[in-house]
Amino acid sequence: MDVFQPRLKFFNRGVPGATLRADRGRLDTASRDMWADGSVVMVSTDGVRLETDFMRYDSASDRFLSTAPVTLTRGASRVTGVGWEARPDLSEMIVRQERGELASEDTPFLTKP
Known about the structure:
Blueprint: E1 2-4, E2 7-12, E3 15-21, E4 24-27, E5 34-44, E6 49-58, E7 63-74, E8 77-86, E9 93-95, E10 99-101
Antiparallel strand pairs: 1-4, 2-3, 3-5, 4-5, 5-6, 6-7, 7-8, 8-9, 8-10
């Protein structure tokens, strides 16, 4: 099913984890996999903001995956990279080709592969 300007909320055991918006999306209702592209923005309930061009959600692994450039922002910290994966609540992330500016008052929120 193709959708225009999807707006989604992700939950972890009934607790809100993150929101997602994009220009376009597609949902496979059988597999529960999802694709989003065009100004994709995810925001977690704990303040992490992820911006990318496109991504997909793989329901079997419960991960968002992308080979696109990404910008992650939390407070004054900003990390950019190309290629990434994350849990739906953005609590665990891997960013490839990472470059960042981490402010000392922020706690680290990335893991490296």
